[in-house]
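Repro:
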Amino acid sequence: MPRGITGGRPHGSPWTADWEERDAHRVDHAGRDAGGDAGGRAAVLPTRLGLFGFGVRGGLDLRGDGQLVLGTTLDAGDLFTSRVRLRPSAEIGVFNGDNTYVGSLESLWRFTQDDQVATPYVGIGFSLASHARCGADPDCPDLWLNLVFGVELHYRSTFNWLLEYHGMDALRRHRIYIGLTTRRGN
């Protein structure tokens, strides 16, 4: 093996043997298993944070007369495995009452790898919610607990359709969405 420096240690040293084997496995299987092993299990990787993609969505808040909800999401990284994603989002609800504003941070467990035709997921998170007359409301802003159920459907090499249900405010509010999201790896 050629001599060189990897992480401050020479190739072939006893300190880097495990790292070199892991890196070789990653190179050999990157295209086939997309971050998992041959059995389809998610690879345990360190947490990776960054901007890996984004999405846009629209939907309805099913509480009361229903508001039109428009929002955007970010793919902010992996938590402990490539199947657990960190997703911040922002939304505005318009029509049928005061405008509402929601900022959320959610963790999503994806049941399959990204290369599948359909990728179902479930998640949990928190939202900071507000509305147009927040200054006069002693309970505003409010912190909500959210549950997420959704599926991404392959659309193009760089985009997926997104269908999603959000049970927000400890399931006192219900929102449904449709949208587009970028695919990783392109």
